[in-house]
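Q: I'm writing up a methods section and want to include an example of the input and output format. Could you take the sequence below and give the corresponding predicted structure tokens, formatted cleanly so I can copy it straight into the document?
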Amino acid sequence: MRVSGTRLLHSAIRLSDVAFPASDTLLARTRLIYLHLDNLLSFAKRDRDGKVDAYFLGYLPDELILLFFREGELVTATGIGAGQRCVLPIAEAVRRLKADPERAEAAYCAAPLAQLEWMYQACAAPAEPWVVDTKHPELIFPRVVEESLSGALEIISNGRVNYLQFDRGKFSGGYFYGRPESVSLPAYIEGIFQPDAEGVRPALSVSGVPPAAGLPAQALPSQVSMYRELFARISDAIEAESPGDGLRRVDRVTDRLLPLRATLGHLLPSNGSDPSMVATPASELTADFAAWTGALLTEIEVVSPGSGPQILQTTTREQRHLLQAAGFYSHFPWSLTW
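A: Here is the clean output for your methods example:
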């Protein structure tokens, strides 16, 4: 791969130099063209050794692609470019990796789940760049105390990524790139900022990362399609229960909830986007769709007592097992008997 000149936002760090901490290197950095990506993504389905918490880091000419695995299952993906970090639909992340393998490289590494959560959060939040005095970078720590920071500092030194965790301004642990056991933590952190033997200071990037909220699994395309189908089916059932007013009621509830439940936008009849291009956490999509369903059924209960649970049971019967597994029914006050 040609050495990319693309640099991390607000820093002099080349994306091609970025490397994250790892508890084990499952596949050392190599050219992507030599890998069978689909086999690697499904490794855990064929071998128990693949059931690990890990990340796959793809080095593309102008961006980094991160795939996150929980117990070997690919759950979400992010991208890091010159101008932004973001969550990517898994299908889109894989497509980008496959688009130009001759000019790309990749590494596959095991890491603690908590570290993966910080890596994901740094893209999802995203991380907020801090202005650093290059001559006195250690001055970031008084700021941590002053602001009573809860979350993490992502400190990248010459491409080496480190996460320092804080709880109300107090250091509570972290994940450090390549720290030898023989080197004390204070000495390692001090070394992050030190000039090299020739007196050249490291290229630094320091960013604040809000507290991580887990590593959410993206909704599967089949789940998005199912909820779209149910959205239409429930809307029709509401109209059948209240002819002439049902669909207007659906529109009112949708308009009221959409600003608060943004993922509902993926389910609207007017949304004809590819379900595989949705990068929404499955739990969030389920909760938002359940909130919409519950609001509608609560209203229709006032007009026609007993119709709420009946509509819920009738419209979702075919998908009840998938919905139960997703925790959908736990959002309602009714106990359904199948």
